[in-house]
Amino acid sequence: MASYEPVNEPMVMDIDSWSKLTLVEQKVLGAIFHKHAAQPFSSLLQREQWAVEGLSVAEAQSTFANLRQQRWIESVHKSWGERLFYIPASLMETLTIAYVQRVGLTVEQMTIHAHVLQEGKPDIAAELLHLIAWIGREGLPLTGKGTIHKKTIQKLSAITVLSSTDFNGLGIRYGHSDLYPIHVAILLDLLLSLNLVQKAEGRIRIVDHQLQQWLKLSWGQMHREIYQACVDRYGNTEPALQHFRHQLAVLSPGKNVWCRIVNSTCEPQIRGWLYALASWGYGDVGEDQSGALAFRWLIEPQSLLNLRQEAVGEAEPCGFYMQPDFDMLVPPEAGPDVIWMLGQCAERVTRDRMSIYRMTREQIISAIAKGHALHEVMEFLDQYALTGVPENVRIALADWGKETDVATVTVDQYMEPTKASTSSAEDQKLFEKDVLSSEHSSFYTPGNQGLVDVPAFLHGLEHDHSVIEKRFSLLGFEEIPETWYKEWRRYHSSTARQIAAKAIEWQTKLGIQQGHGTQYLIPHQVEGHEEWTLSGWCMLDSSEHTSETEWRTFSPSQWDTMRLILPDDVIT
Asked: Within 13 Å and on the Cβ side, how many CA atoms surround 454?
């Protein structure tokens, strides 16, 4: 789902802010949210659709201006001047909660366990670090056509735990699909869109300064950045599927709890998305006893929604178990910096909940060639080897280090030389404040050119800074008598017909009274002249703001008095 946030200050609107909207504002916003989700739109709903809400078009337009002024709705300009409107992505969580009954619940908690169809794979964040480390060692040269060599693609496909079958249900499109397996295309697309690599000088190169900032994130922060990119680039943009994805994250009770997928008319697309989430390590896919789809988050879903929700704190240090045979057993709690350094000085043997790395002579020599001094490698082992470093490993490392004195080594050409971090604790706090606590994704750039075809939507369009005029005029308003809209009065049949026709022209409501009863109409059509009738939607109680309507036809003999019902913001 492509999303867009303006450069202005981020929206800070919670359910309390929504509850302060007027009833009509809630109706208009709900109708737009239900129909479009975060999709851009250029026009409001049709008269018939507003009538179902118990609103005239004039009311809806007036209220829409109010919502824009309050920034529940934003807008951008296309190059030829057309204006596009959209609900900011930062409001989707609040609106998902506010309008769950309107949209329809698609996720409900299960009281029993589901049968597992697809277990979640090891998390995608560590997989990306492994891929970057591999690129740093092997390089990714491009052909004259700008594609990766076929043999290199085969290697990429082999070193990852992902497979093409994980993503067949997404239905995504990308260039050179005959060359790139879909799982390889997604991995490279993620790295490009997160600005961790870029195409330059005939190859795909690591963006070192961006990588250094990335390595300062926690696993949770990486998962959130990656999740937002995945939703934006690989999530189906149909509003119904946007609503499902938000409900799955917002309304799920938490991690390790099964939820059943209900009331869904998009089962194939939902199944494809759930299997993709499992492949990225976000959850497990299952089914209940009736065969209905189910999902269980393996991480806290709320942590994926808003960068401000996770307090930045000191992570508990966790390392690995160094074996005498040079194998290193790495638990899932090991931090990103540990996994990254292991990728520099060891090769990954297996990738699972408990991964295995093996330290080799070639990897150590390569790490030293890339600027990691032998004593730095030893300090890393001493710091993170939970049960210590076996003596034979120390001896072997010393011997391998001596070989670099005579071996011909080349500084890594696939990445800018890594400089030792000299940032102070204060620098890290500033980074956490400015980057990690921001509401906006600090690494993912929606408009970035990756491998996957992503609809442009609002990317690169100019934000609309024009003044929002809250009050509006009606054409020919000054030509009608004030009594038409200010007083309940009895009119001659021909004048009553003129008033009804004017309500239709201006798309406003019409009030009629008979005895002590008052009815509010959204008129649609006047038929006949001397003997005429008025058809339209009638409010089913005395409140002009009720949403329950019924199609009816009236003749002027069925009311005594009448008047036009104009929105409050009409210039009078």
From this structure: 26
